[in-house]
Amino acid sequence: MSKYTAKYLEEKLTKELDAQYVQAIDESDGCGGKFSVTIVSEKFRGLKMLQKHRLVNSALVEELKEIHAFSQKSYTPEEWEKIQQEKQ
């Protein structure tokens, strides 16, 4: 069982990436071993998807040693706004 929670990941990513929006979902039935995360940050501007993922992974280097499954969606504010508009 991991000591990490969705709330912990949201707070850490918000702080480390100066994120405007972070949503972490524990998909592991509470054991903290599998997370899906959506992050919106200006720090992603000009980066390709792999670069964004590496930035997130570097912010969670210690946590990812214990989390066995981690998926992420990383967006700039403009990319996120476009996605939100498409949902309407």
TrEMBL record:
GO terms for biological process: intracellular iron ion homeostasis; protein maturation. One of its GO terms (molecular function) is 2 iron, 2 sulfur cluster binding. One of its GO terms (cellular component) is cytosol. It comes from the Eukaryota. Belongs to the BolA/IbaG family. This is BolA-like protein. It comes from Stomoxys calcitrans (Stable fly).
